[in-house]
Amino acid sequence: MGQKDGFDPNDPIGNLRKARDATLDAWAKAMIDLVNTETFARWVGATLDSYLIASAPLQQLINTSMKTSLARLNLPSREELTTLARRVTNIEMRLDDIEIKLDQLAHALRTQTPVIVEMLTEQLEQNKQEGTELNGMEQRLAALDHKADQMLQLIERLQQAALEPVDASQKRRKAPRQVPPPDPATPEEVKEDHAIEGF
Amino acid sequence: MTTSPETTLFPVDPATVAKNLYAEVERLGKAYEMGVKVATGKQKAKVAQTPKEAIWTLNKTTLYHYYPQAPAEKRKRVPLLLVFALINKPYIFDLRPGNSFVEYMVQQGYSVYLVDWGAPGPEDAHLTFDDYALEYLPRAVRRMQMHSGQHDFSMLGWCIGATLSAIYAAMRPNDGLRNLILLTAPIDFSNKGAIGPFPKWLKEEYFNLDAILEQTGNYPGEMIDAGSKLLKPVENLVGNYLRLLDNLDDPKIVESWQAMNTWVSDGVPFAGAAYRQLVVDLYRENRLMKGTWIMRGRPVNLGDIKASLLNIIARQDHIVPPCQSETILDRVSSTDKHQIIMPGGHIGIMAGSGARRGLWPQIDAWLADRSI
Question: Between A12-35 and B14-40, two packed helices, what is the crossing angle to 10 degrees?
């Protein structure tokens, strides 16, 4: 063994370290081979099984006593809290869906608003142009309306003029006629009336 | 002065020995100081430092957006969504300043988003791959599209995040996904002899999945961590700490070690129903590759993937060996598809110190032209 092999007689600590590393390397390789064997796999399985068999009764005892204690204290059990937590997660998912839809809506509004504003502006411009034409039509319609009113008034006047004599004779016919008061009944007539009333 | 043949063979110089020992004592002094800081928690790793905002949450899932840093003229139009695995936390994408993929991509002008699945609780034990890929991920995508104002997007999935991304890409090809990057994606489980010890450990006769999930509900993060460490037990349980001890006098290495160790130890449980699918549908029955995995009443057909595809493989990956990832290229319908095989491990290719000069520029080069 010489310095070429990494051995330095002037560095005792370094030599110890090198020897240690060489030993560890050998161990490391041996252990890697070992953990790759079926025997090791069986040992891992058996160790886990032993752990589970040993811990199961204790865990069951803890679970039962915890459940009883919580029930006595009127506190929710682990199962109840687990169920509640799952329900909360479900609600959270629904909220997430709603939130993303709102965000999409807000995004759409943000991006679409300028387009909509532009469309509305164009529409207003168009309406203004169409409005000028409409104004002309409105004036003509108003003139026609006015003429129609005048015609109606004229017709009414004509009707009134034509119907006036008829109305006057109707008024005369319809006036209550002055009926003279009846002559007082004679005693014979009164008796006759009473006699008739007896039937 | 004459020397004997023995002294020529071992030329011990007491002065050099003393100098080396003194240097070691001095190093130990510094190391002790740093060791105390690390052990007492006074020295902590600053992880996930790139400025970001949470823009959406649902149950435990959060969608983050990283603030742009590049000038407006350098920014890319198509946003990039990062999807990490269901194991550990996604800040591995943004490990620490100077060693952060997120920071790098933001500086290159990408609009970067990140899905954080969070830590599932007992109430999430029923969550499946279907839920993650077809319920949560589309909602996150929808929110990202709304936030970025772009319909087209790129997606980068890592590890099981890549599996989820592939499922999403296959099931929803018309949602706007333009570029798909799969990083160490576990997809093809047919070659059971070559894909490491996991298929052996997870065999039905050894691994009692039902018994575990019945007791735990979700698969515990500690068990996942233990399983990952057992793949290379000496390196992970001994070598890793010795590396820290040897470098305690170097604050930069300590910082880097701490950041990675923080992430490795920061495990999360795996939702029970999804873990069952991982073991049964993927590891045992290879349903995704066979086209027999039914989700929402439809089989997941990898042939329906049409987005431009970049498939990245780590040559020394012991968690997702190359044979699990490389065959997807033959299945997809994408006309624009590329594959990169990088030297390095499952995490190292993306979060290692060489990633800034290695993989990240390659991802940027591929994505830049496709993000205009």
Answer: 50
pLDDT of B1 reads: 43
Q: What percent of chain B has pLDDT over 70?
A: 96
Q: Which of A36, A29, A42, A41 is nearest to B234 (CA)?
A: A29
Taking only the tens place, the pLDDT of each residue in A107-147 is 888 888 888 888 888 888 888 777 766 677 777 788 888 88
Q: Quote the strand ranges of B240-307, DSSP E.
A: 294-295, 298-299
Query: Given an 8 Å threshold on Cβ–Cβ distance, is A44 in contact with B59?
Result: no
The closest CB to that of A11, out of B11, B20, B200, belongs to B20
Give this complex's ipTM: 0.81
B154 torsion bin: left (phi>0), alpha (psi -120 to 50), beta (else): beta
Q: How far is A47 from chain B (nearest CA, A)?
A: 10
> With a cut of 50, which residues of chain A have pLDDT below it?
1-2, 169, 172-177, 179, 195-199
Among B155, B181, B172, residue whose Cα is nearest residue B325 = B181
pLDDT in tens, B157-169: 999 999 999 999 9
B143/B132 Cα distance (integer angstroms): 15
Query: Which residues, including other chains, have CB under 8 Å from residue A182's CB and lie 6 or more apart?
Result: none
| B151 is annotated as an active-site residue | no
Comparison of pLDDT for A140 and B134, the residue scoring more: B134
**Domain extent listing, chain A:** 86-158
Q: Which CATH class is domain B52-368?
A: alpha beta
Distance between CA B154 and CA B183 in Å, rounded? Answer: 13
Q: In angstroms, rounded to a whole number, what is the distance separating the alpha carbons of residues A86 and B122?
A: 10
Q: What angle do CA A158, A163, A168 make, to 5 degrees?
A: 140
Residue B317 known to be catalytic: yes
Residues ≥6 apart with Cβ < 8 Å to A17: B246
Q: Convert the pLDDT of each residue in B311-361 to its tens digit.
A: 999 999 989 999 999 999 999 999 999 999 999 999 999 999 899 999 999
* Cα–Cα distance, B261 to B269 (Å, whole number): 18
Closest CA to B332 of B371, B300, B356: B300
Give DSSP secondary structure letters for A156-195. Answer: HHHHHHHHHHHHHHHHHHHSPP-PPPPPPPPHHHHHHHHH
Angle at alpha carbon of residue A152, lines to A146 and A157, rounded to 5°? 130
- DSSP structural state of residue B86: S
Cross-chain Cβ contact B238/A93 below 8 Å: no
Q: Is B232 on the interface with A (CB under 8 A)?
A: yes
